[in-house]
Amino acid sequence: MTFQIEALPYDAFAPLFALDDMALADAGARRMTVDHKPGFPCRVSLQDAEVGETVILVNHTHLDLGSPYDARHAVFVRQDAPQAAPVAGEVPEVLHHRLLSLRAFDAGGMMIAADVVEGAEVAARLDAMFGATDVSFIDIHNAKPGCFAARARRV
What we know:
Blueprint: E1 3-6, H1 21-26, E2 29-33, E3 54-63, E4 71-78, H2 93-96, E5 99-105, E6 111-118, H3 122-129, E7 137-142, E8 148-154
Antiparallel strand pairs: 1-8, 2-3, 3-4, 5-6, 5-7, 7-8
């Protein structure tokens, strides 16, 4: 079974970088300067931001299918982040060194399986979870802290 990890689109976040800090706060977001690496994983580039870079921390709705599991969580986005496009079956480096929570959902947004794995084991676990034909997608979260990381789809 092959999976495809998807990054979030930068266009959804680009307008935030033009806002001042007060407007960002009103939008529930915060501008930050990266002061250590790793620690600020960008959901658009699927890379850890470099020390000195500007990121926006914002609450992002990543599951909105009208199910009890609809969810939103904090994500970091780097300013002018290049759009990541991992090849099928590839796990971006940003996920390799983190403890990850995998949550498998059916097409209706109902969670049907979940697991916690070390990043080095995520590819094998994604393949195994997609072995169940009713799994439509798998949301990947950092287990510590539990921010949304990316979505994997069946290819």
